[in-house]
Each structure stands twice: as structure tokens, then as C-alpha cells.
């Protein structure tokens, strides 16, 4: 038996979907967002204009990529001071993930980073509604029950999972993705492809997640090149929806070793999550393919795509400007050699535990090296 959950209460999608903010009821709304891009393209002003007729609105900005424990704790203090009954997380996966962790500690003040990994977590928020408006098409944090926080002091990225983290409403508005730079569209789109393929080759999948993952894979192969090259509304909206489908799939079936290895590199070098995944994905597929079940699933994908899926992943990566290895992504060799043992230890954590082939430090080491050196 398996319980499947695809979204919170509502998924609102299509160009102009942001207008749904104008029908929310609340007293105090806090917008949690990242850098300057959503200010520059007018999205934050538009959101404020939609919300302000209904109550007080405050903006908490400046959440960076790979959000850290410190950023969450600073935001939590601001959230406690403002005391919102509605939180609207807007931006890439980072501000949405940071807002999730803040919300958890805001709703349950006895929880903190000291005990959150050793305590059974509550599942139902009672004082705060939570809306997520992604501006990138990758993490699908808008529909998942997961947040990933970086702990620089131990060079690790750790996931917190509970239903309380799943947004009540997800808004997929391709219009706010129009100003997304091409390289961010490429990296986040490859993150979504990684979610879909890791889910598709995870033994926990069943019929529903199989279909969602396969649909996302086919859609991303069809629409990501145009989303990167042209960035028009149709391709950006399509990528938003396929990335979300991939999230629905992997949050029910799990991922695999690509995310385990990429989290280790991101924790050490702040490598963009989607970029790291994109580079690592073909090396892991080459390895996992020795498993007959994985080989059969990849053959099914290859038949649907009209060519070998691993070669198609490499070609798509190249087409959208992803480097072939992590050395070419700018991580200095001296740093890699200094940190290699710790990177391997870090790569064994997280989703590597649900890789279709069980891994050991000895078997994962050559894959980490191959992803770094490109051979
Ligand atoms: Fe990811």
C-alpha cells in the first residue's frame, strides 16, 4: 500500500495565474523572496498590489542560492516579529525552501535546527497559510513536502520532510519566468529532468509516478531547448508545468545518487544545484545501467524518445550550455583533491541511500571522480 500526494489544496497554472493572490483572505501576509530579479521585473510590486487591499504586507528578501541555517534563522526572527497568517514564497527553489523551514519553526516554536532531525515532525499547520510562486522551473518545491538547507559549518545539505512543508497553493505563472536568464533556465530545467529520470529509475515508483515522470521527461526534452534559446511565454509555461510534474513524481517515489553526489558538491563549493545535477546525471546513468531492471527502464525511455536516453541527456546538456564535467564548471582541481574524501562521504548521504544499486564509498568514488574529471 502506498499513499500518494501530488499537491497541496490547489495548483493554479497558466499565464496570469499570479492574479490568484488577489482572492486570498488574510490579515498579515509576508512575501519571502530572493535577490533582485523579481523586483526588477515588477513581480513583487504586482504581488503587493494584489495582496494589499486585503491586509498588511511585508517583504522579506535577500534569500540566496543554497539557503543556509543562518538565513533561515534571520528570516524566522523577522517572521516572528511580523506575525503573518499568510506566507507567500516567491522566486527560485531557494526562497521557497527557506520559507518552508522558517514556517516550520514559526508554527512550532519548540522546533529548531538542534532537534528537527531527531524529533517526529508535526504534519498540519494551523496558524499560517502557505502559497508558493516559483520563478524558475526546476525544484518543484511548490508542490513537495521537502526543504533542503545548507549547513556550511559541516559542509552538508540536509533535507527536512513533513507534510507541514507542502504549500497549500502552488501558482505556476510562466509570465514571471520571462526574464529568467538563459543559463538559469538551462540549469533549473536540467534539475527537473534529473528529478524525472531519477524517479523513473527508482524502484519505489508505481503507475502514477511512472506516468508523471515519463511525461515530464518527454516534455522537458521537447521544450527545454526552446525555453533556453527563445525564452518565449509558451516554452517557459510548458517548462514550469513539466518541472512541477517531475516534482509530483519524485516526491512520491524518491530520487537517487545524482542528488546525493550533487548535494555534496554544492555544500562544499556552492555549485548551483541544477548545474551539478546536469553534469553528474549521465555518469550515474552509465553506472546504474548495469542493473538489469534499470537497463530495461532506460530502454523503455529510449524507445519513447527515439534514441538512447543517456546519449540524448548528454546532447541536451551540451545544447543548453552545460559543461561536460565539474572541473569545467569551475571547481579548482586543488580544492577537489583536498576535499575528495569528504566529498565521497557526503555523496553517500541523502538520496544515494535510495539509488537503484546500493552504493558504498568504494563504488561511489570512481563516479565522483568521473563527474569531476569527465572520464
Ligand atoms: Fe533537484
Give a quick rundown of the structure.
By secondary structure, this protein is an alpha/beta fold. The protein has 13 helices and eight strands.
Describe the fold and architecture.
The protein has 375 residues and is an alpha/beta fold. It folds into two domains: 167 residues, 3-Layer(aba) Sandwich (Rossmann fold), CATH 3.40.50.1970; 192 residues, Dehydroquinate synthase-like - alpha domain (Dehydroquinate synthase-like, alpha domain, Up-down Bundle), CATH 1.20.1090. The protein is built from 13 helices and eight strands. The strands form two sheets. The chain has a six-stranded parallel sheet, sandwiched between helices. A two-stranded antiparallel sheet has the order 6-7. A hairpin with a 4-residue loop joins strand 6 and strand 7. Helix 8 packs antiparallel against helix 9, helix 9 packs across helix 13 and helix 12 runs antiparallel to helix 13. The termini are far apart. 50% of the residues are buried. The mean pLDDT is 96.
Describe the secondary-structure layout.
Blueprint: E1 10-13, E2 28-33, H1 37-40, H2 43-51, E3 56-60, H3 69-82, E4 86-91, H4 93-107, E5 129-134, E6 146-151, E7 156-161, E8 169-172, H5 182-200, H6 207-229, H7 233-253, H8 257-269, H9 273-288, H10 292-305, H11 309-319, H12 333-347, H13 361-373
Parallel strand pairs: 1-8, 2-3, 2-4, 4-5, 5-8
Antiparallel strand pairs: 6-7
Helix pairs in contact: 3-4, 5-6, 5-7, 5-9, 6-7, 8-9, 8-12, 9-11, 9-13, 12-13
The structure holds fe (ii) ion.
